[in-house]
């Protein structure tokens, strides 16, 4: 009987171990990610009928949701929210992470902790908190808010909600990303930064030519995750709309429109069709960010 080559056994073991670690995640991904996505795609082709059985069509549900008069307003609201929130958050996170990295003292851990604390209040709890903060009658900054309110005596409306959600998003999400970017900055070899300083590079040149290229992948990751989260905003406008009746639309965001199709109209085909379109938009934007930032490019590629 032929003995096994020890070298081959070790190589096979090295190839097997990563899959053992990945297997629990892959099972969950298939069960709660891939399978529901496939079912949702199938459901988007099922046309619900008020009377009679449902039918199958590749385009009817998509045409119906794209022609819905509520979709342009929902898309505009989400776009304005992303326009206010995403650039400000990225710049603030990057600036604060750089400031913490520039002054590496024993208080760095405390600074990171303080930055992260607001992120502990998220979802419906954050929505209730900011509903209180933006209600002129009870807010500690009510006097300032009254400068911008109309006859309704409320600051909250369809037009002001993007600003409110941007403030909420920055307070809840910035802390975690600051910790991530600071970790990436500390991983940059100090001798590279010191060499640049000896060559006469000032602080701005060091940031632009050394630090930013090294953490480009992390910024791309933040952009992709945050963009996807922004397009799927649902809990916050729903809770705030409940606290400001008749001021904010029940289909303010795209996800709220999906929810309306599924719950109020029991039209799961249209809900799935709009969800699939939203997924496609997020995928296209993610691919564009990946190509623009060259996240997976190697040093040899450029």
Q: Keywords for this structure?
A:
MetI-like fold, 302 residues, two-stranded antiparallel ribbon
What would you give as the CATH superfamily? MetI-like
Task: Indicate the percent of residues in helices.
Answer: 55-70%
Number of strands: 2
What global shape is seen?
globular
The tally of helices reads 13
Largest sheet: 2 strands, antiparallel
CATH architecture: Orthogonal Bundle
Given the helix and strand composition, which structural class is it?
mainly alpha
Q: What is the rounded Rg?
A: 25 Å
Order of strands, main sheet, comes to: 1-2
Measured distance between first and last alpha carbons: 51 Å
Architecture overview:
- The chain is mainly α.
- The protein has one domain (70-301): Orthogonal Bundle (MetI-like fold).
- It has 13 helices and two strands, in the order αββαααααααααααα.
- The chain has helices spanning 6-43, 60-66, 70-102, 108-116, 123-133, 142-145, 161-186, 190-198, 203-214, 216-231, 235-243, 254-263, 268-293; strands at residues 46-47, 55-56.
- Strand 1 (46-47) and strand 2 (55-56) form a beta hairpin.
- Helix 10 (216-231) packs antiparallel against helix 13 (268-293).
- The mean pLDDT is 82.
Itemize the secondary structure elements and their pairings.
Layout: H1 6-43, E1 46-47, E2 55-56, H2 60-66, H3 70-102, H4 108-116, H5 123-133, H6 142-145, H7 161-186, H8 190-198, H9 203-214, H10 216-231, H11 235-243, H12 254-263, H13 268-293
Antiparallel strand pairs: 1-2
